[in-house]
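Table 4 source record.
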Amino acid sequence: MKRFVLPILMLILSLVLFAACGGTDDDSDIVGHWTWDDGNDRSITFNADGTGVRNWWIGGQVDHFNWTISGTDLEMTMTSGVIFDEPEFRNDELWTATITGNHMLLASQQGTDTFNYTRD
C-alpha cells in the first residue's frame, strides 16, 4: 500500500501545479483590433506598446489612449480625441475586460455601459 501512496501524492501535486499555471496575466490577450458587435463600423485597437485607438463616435470621432490591464481590470487614459477639462468628466476609463476566444465584453466600472466586441 505504501508503494502506491508516493506516486499518487506526486500525481496530485503535479495536477495542482499544472492547474495553477492555467491562467494568464499576459497583456497580449487583449492586443489586436476589435469590432463592436452593434452592426456599425465602430472599433477599438489595443497595441502591444500600451497605446490604442477607438473609433466609435458619430461623425468619425477617433480617440487615442494609453492602456494598462491587470487581470480583468482595464484602464484607458485618453491622450487625444475627447479630452475633458471639467473635473466632473473622466479622461481615465475603468473597465472589466472579459475575453473568451475572439470575443471581448467590456463592462464599465464607472457606470452601467457594456460593449461586446469580436477580434478581427
